[in-house]
Amino acid sequence: MEPDFIVIGSGPAGCAVASRLSEDPRQQVLLLEAGPGQRQGLLGSNAALGALAYGTKASAYNWGFNSLPDPGLNGRISYNPLGRGLGGGTALNMLMYMRGNPLDYDGWAQAGNPGWGWSDVLPYFKKSENNQTFNTPGDPYHGQGGPVWVEELRTDNPWHATLRQACQEAGWPCNPDLNGAVQDGFRPTQVMMKGGERHHAGQAYILPHLGTRPKLQLQCDSPVTRVLFEGQRAVGVEVVQGGTKRQIRARKEVIVSSGGLLSAKLLQLSGVGDGALLQRMGIPVVAHLPAVGQHLQDHVDVILGHHIPGDPHLAGISPTGALNLWRAMRRWRRERRGMCTTNFAEVTGFMRLTPDAPLPEIQYEFVVVLAMDHGRDVYAKHGLSTHVLLLHPKSRGSVQIASPHWEDAPAIDYRYFSHPDDLATMVAGVRRVLQVYDTPTMRSRVKADLRTAHCRSDEDYAQFCRNVAGTNYHPTSSCRMGPEAATSVVDARLRVHGLQGLRVIDSSIFPTIPGGNTTAPSYMVGEKGAALLREDWQ
Question: Could you tell me which of 143, 96, 107 has the C-alpha nearest to residue 366?
């Protein structure tokens, strides 16, 4: 049967869109995913082991892209893990439930996107959420009946209390709810797990309904090579299944939900983008939209490392660490508790660098293992890694097709620190976060600063940042929403400018990157995008 809607990509937004559209039994919905279906066994259910197994190199579950050499990183190439398969990034990521700051979304509305202010989007955050901590009916900030399970970590790690003491000694406030009335402060991370297991977008929105909604179809291992057009209307897709290309038509609309990097790539392969680029690639131009692939943003990330010897509650490569892991794995199998329920980034927080800053500029994440370079560089020691994230970068990058062939990786150019304010803010953030290691609680435990002991001046720290910074896996805004076709890709109803039957619904439409992890905002965009579609087709 010819579907009414084709949704391309089963990440958080795509799963939300497909599921909500299929609630109407009249609508035939086809969800296409380039990668495999649900991972089975230990690597499917254990969040930490799955991330380690698939996050460090390209695989069936990880696109594993590399960026272009980046002048802001002293010419280094950044490795960019990217989820592939049912659940998209939520089947690979660190599962942190963060929304950003209300002012982020008010800024979206003020930039010419009506209906996207904080009061407009909060109901969609709540609709997606099933929060096990903030579970009072009528809670003004949290939902209890949504498909996305949000719970506290089940690691029972005493370092939560230790870090709380250290942060308070540094003058940082504890905040019981980083997604509530105030963002500033720290707490143990709330995670999108269910009973100590990874709970990805496909498990939340799709798998429970495949047997009960006959008009909802999921087809994995089905990469879409291009969107098909008749004139200015999208009418279907070309997809590779079983090694053969075939075409599938959509009666109503095609929804691109391939994420912050791949949605722009698919539009360009389909003839939607900068006309000069498309002509160079030999791709017929359907719509000249120069903003496709531009305005790319990410939370650039600098990782600190501190050696804390002999602590059994910090993962590490050592005989003690191996024994602890074996014991923790046994406990996880019995109880779904303990070290093996970790998301690694077990305590997180937000800070303003000056009292008059309108909103936090820095996020910090305490990771309970000494791991750098996306887990590919692990010290043979026990300790803490501390991630320092720039929440509101002024630098802008791009993602563009490197060839007309769908199999080829895109050219990703983050241009980190290309705006000088970003490097200055990051240096100030790193120096501020390091203050927590100069507290009595941490001085008594830390044996060595493994990353910044040589730094004295701001210039030293700036060079350190250029030498080690990289992605925190939050690419956004490459198909950004806005009122003008010259500078944006979709309008406030997520329709691609100048075309019919085509929308983009995922993190690529963010006008600016929110100040926090981007999975929860992607779920919100999926929920709101589905509501817009249902309004337009009722």
Answer: 96
Three-state DSSP state, 313 = coil
Beta-carbon contacts of residue 319 (< 8 Å; ≥ 6 apart): none
Q: Is residue 1 part of a domain?
A: no
Q: Are 57 and 486 in contact (CB under 8 A)?
A: no
At CA 48, angle to CA 47 and CA 49, rounded to 5?
100
> What element of type H or E holds 239?
strand 233-241
Residue 421: other Cβ atoms inside 10 A: 13
Render pLDDT for 147-197 as a digit per residue (tens, 0 to 9). Answer: 999 999 999 999 999 999 999 999 999 999 999 999 999 999 999 999 999
State which amino acid sits at residue 282: G
Encode 170-197: b = buried (16+ Cβ within 10 Å), e = exposed: bebeebebbbeeebbbbbbbbbbbbebb
- Alpha carbon of residue 456 to chain centroid: 34
Whether 474 is catalytic is yes
Does residue 532 lie within any of the structural domains? no
Q: Degrees (nearest 5) of the Cα angle 70, 71, 72?
A: 90
Q: Which domain holds residue 361?
A: 154-188+300-390+417-468
Per-residue exposure over 328-355, b if at least 16 CB sit within 10 Å of its own CB, e if not: bbebbeeebbbbbbbbbbbbbbbbeeee
Angle between helices 458-468 and 420-434 (to 10 degrees): 100
Instruction: Give the whole-angstrom CA distance, residue 281 versus residue 401.
Output: 9
First to last CA, the chain: 21
Q: How many structural domains is the chain composed of?
A: 1
232 inside domain: no
Q: Is residue 438 part of a domain?
A: yes
The model's pTM: 0.97
Question: Quick one: which H or E segment has residue 230?
Answer: strand 224-230
Within 13 Å and on the Cβ side, how many CA atoms surround 173? 11
Burial class from Cβ neighbours inside 10 Å (0-12, 13-18, 19+) for residue 450 reads middle
Amino acid (one-letter) located at 126? K
Cα–Cα distance measured from residue 143 to residue 133, given in angstroms and rounded to the nearest whole number: 10
The active-site residue out of 313, 374, 474, 497 is: 474
The three-class DSSP label of residue 45 is helix
pLDDT in tens, 318-359: 777 788 888 888 998 999 999 899 999 999 999 999 999 999
Spell out the residues 6+ positions from residue 194 whose beta carbon is closer than 8 angstroms to its own: 149, 151, 203
Q: Are 115 and 492 in contact (CB under 8 A)?
A: yes
| C-beta neighbour count of 285 within 10 angstroms | 15
Which secondary-structure segment (H or E) carries 198? Answer: strand 197-198
Tokens of residue 230, six digits: 């008749």
Which CATH number does the domain housing residue 167 bear?
3.30.410.40
